[in-house]
Design brief:
Keywords: Iron, Iron-sulfur, Membrane, Metal-binding, Transmembrane, Transmembrane helix
Pfam family, one: Fer4_9
Number of helices: 11
CATH topology of the largest domain: Rossmann fold
Number of strands: 10
Protein name: EFR1 family ferrodoxin
Distance between the termini: 33 Å
Structural class: alpha/beta
Number of domains: 2
Organism: Dysgonomonas termitidis
Largest sheet: 6 strands, mixed
CATH superfamily of the largest domain: Flavodoxin domain
Length: about 350
């Protein structure tokens, strides 16, 4: 197959993992004598122009809820028709166990995006996932420095091998080996897109340590954080990319673990009472029970999140709320993708 002449990489990144992979790809391309352009999806203000015929299009984005986040999907949906070759990549939540990396799940990220792009006339020639360091510190503590360096080293070496195929014009579908688990997890991906992402949008708040500097508002790639005059407020546009939490200079942005525990317990009790008194305590349908619980959960979360936002204005209540968050404590840490000079010297 003919060697490529140009490549155009479109990426979306929160804490820098996808951006790092995009930069690595660009570096490999340039070293191979291929002109490469990088474009941040979150900074595209006008309609995207299709790269000239023969230019390889590469789309790189993290996986949120086993799918590309909405900002990436909207970009793909709006992308004009064309006939270029396209390589899809993603960054998943990688963790280190000894000398091994636990693989994440791509879910429907590639399947859905490939379907949309094929309908537009594009030719999908690659689908490659990368298990970069997990940045989801709402769920687990930030990875230590050694683990982050290890994961960067391994993914860099892995991308180098894949680039040898991609840049020579050969197809590369590394994701095919995960197809079974990706199909099995697809219902969860759908549930996340319809409900889950809206719930997680209300998992962030600014603790009493917030000095209202506005940094999170300015840096949010999807403009999901609103200035209320006293402290930032997260809207449903939030993609849970973790950029605000991991880059806040005061480490004042935290996850509302206490709020979610309260809402979960209350919603569970309320949904059980509702089913018992208004429907039937003998109802066996898991779908109906889940739908009732989810509806009550979302209504409570919407109301209590706003109430919490008001309570945070009172300093001593704000401190109590902050103490109920695991992300408040120093041992939990924060994550940001590290520059290459932090790990290449130790390779």
């Amino acid at each position: 197959m003919d060697k490529l002449g140009k490549a155009h990489v479109f990426y979306f990144s929160g804490t820098g993992n996808a951006r790092r992979v995009a930069m690595w790809f660009s570096g490999f391309a340039v070293n191979s004598g291929i002109e490469c352009q990088l474009t941040d999806i979150s900074k595209i203000n006008s309609k995207t122009q299709v790269p000239e015929h023969g230019t390889l299009i590469v789309i790189i984005s993290p996986v949120h809820g086993f799918n590309y986040p909405r900002i990436t999907l909207d970009f793909i949906r709006r992308f004009p028709k064309g006939e270029n070759k396209v390589v899809l990549m993603n960054t998943r939540a990688g963790l280190r166990i000894g000398r091994f990396i636990t693989p994440g799940l791509t879910g429907i990220s590639f399947m859905l995006s490939a379907f949309i792009l094929k309908k537009k006339g594009y030719h999908i020639t690659g689908q490659i996932p990368f298990d970069m360091p997990s940045n989801w510190i709402s769920i687990h503590p930030a990875l230590n420095g050694k683990s982050v360096k290890f994961l960067h080293q391994k993914n860099y070496a892995r991308l180098e091998k894949h680039c040898q195929k991609i840049l020579s014009g050969k197809p590369d579908f590394a994701s095919d080996k995960d197809i079974v688990q990706d199909i099995l997890i697809s219902p969860v991906a759908l549930a996340y897109y319809l409900v889950g992402r809206f719930a997680l949008a209300k998992s962030f708040y600014a603790s009493p340590d917030c000095d209202n500097c506005g940094s999170c508002i300015k840096q949010c790639p999807v403009k999901a954080i609103r200035d209320t005059g006293s402290r930032p407020f997260w809207t449903y546009k939030c993609e849970s990319c973790m950029k605000c939490m991991n880059e806040c200079p005061k480490k004042a942005i935290e996850t509302a673990h206490g709020l979610f525990l309260t809402v979960s317990l209350t919603a569970s009790f309320a949904s059980s009472c509702f089913i018992h008194h208004f429907i039937s305590s003998n109802i066996q349908s898991g779908f109906i029970r889940s739908a009732i619980f989810t509806s009550i959960f979302m209504l409570l979360l919407f109301a209590l999140y706003r109430l919490q936002h008001l309570f945070l204005k009172t300093k001593w209540i704000g401190k109590l709320i902050s103490y109920s968050s695991l992300t408040h404590y120093k041992f939990w840490g924060r994550y940001r993708s590290i520059p290459d000079n932090k790990w290449k010297d130790n390779k």
